[in-house]
Amino acid sequence: MTRFSKAGFVLSTAGSAIGLGGIWSFPYLVGQNGGFAFVLVFVVAFLVFGVSVFIIEMLFGRASGQNAVSTFESFAPKHLGFLKYGGFMVISGVLIFSFYTVVLGWLVHYMFLSIFGMPTTLEGAKNLWGNFASSQILWQMLWLFVIVAICAYILNRGVKAGIEKLNLILMPMLLFIFLGLLVYSTLQDAFWDSFKFLFQPDFSKITSEVVIKAIGQAFFSLSLGVGVILTYSNSMPKHGNFVRFAVMVALLNFFFCLIAGLVIFTFIFSYGAEPTEGVGLVFVSLPLIFANMGVSGQVIAFLFFVALIFAGITSAVSMLEPLNSYLIERYGMKRRNANFISVLCAYLLGVVVLLSNTAVFSEDLTFFGKNLFDWFVYITSSFMLPFAGVFMCIYMGWILPKERVYAMGEGYLKGIYFEGWYKVIRYIAPLGILLTMVSLI
Length: 441
Ligand code: TRP
Fold this sequence. Notes:
InterPro entries: Na/ntran_symport, SNS_sf, YocR/YhdH-like. By secondary structure, the protein is mostly helical.
């Protein structure tokens, strides 16, 4: 079996974690929810909920050496047969992939627009975005196809020559672009405003709702609940302190989110724009600001979109790998065929999701007031992922005997670290995640 190298493993899991989710929403959450106070809450949520579930997936993956579906089957005790269906979580990966790649396609379009010029008025920027998203179906389908084809190509090459290599190249480049943008930002007057926006603590803003938001964000951002970490852990290097790997990935992810925040808000404050989140931020506010900066803005816009695309592609490829590895191992399929099936399903879903966002088709593809795009986002992030998280906590914390779990730690998780982690996955993590789910309904 080909295994990741140590750097390959850390960068590939970090590549999966660091993506559009974190870079888009983290800065905004920080700014709106008490600055540094939120950062502190987030760090705790990240370490307690994120890293502990991350370690559960790692333990399962390492101990079984099999795909997610077979893993949950092989650990299920006879009298609790239903536990073997835990592998269904791999489906979430396909669903997330289908809308995630649509967004990546939009980013490719904007990357090209950034070279050829963008509107310099708010009116123009809004119109451009509205027109593109609602009526330029062919362009959107083309870019979706390009992104999906790139992912398919990488996945076809397998874990070592595809996923690992991609991450070994793109992740340092991503870091490089981010650091470049950070240095540029520090030279701007508004950097200090951005810094204050992110770091001035306002503890009065910390409510239970904010804590819950932080848990949800920690969970989504670490790519938990799909079996990605589990599947990557199948091919983890045989030796090496994997608990340390988990902490490293979490720190890397955190670091990227912070830089993204500092950079994004420096631009926002330099031009007196409103700090908003997600789509409005990336496709309207920032392009408008870049367009008003002249040539340097063009370069920065281009680099910014390239960075987002890189961050997104390294996440996207990871989403389909759990299903691929199941199809390969269970049905003896060639990687190429397994990959063809999962990519094709995801692409077809992607097209429907894309159409649900356009003027012509939105009416037919809207159900109970939400179009399919929004449904996919909602069902996966608010329901399927956290549910899988609780499932894994209960499975490992309550169903498997403690000695067995201890043995799965292979001596890397022991003493008070083991005891602390074990308490967290038995009580704190499942309760916290359940609360998050209830609040999101
Ligand atoms: N962590 C990714 C991001 O922040 C998105 C993501 C959520 C993800 N769940 C996942 C990626 C599961 C892969 C697998 O953008």
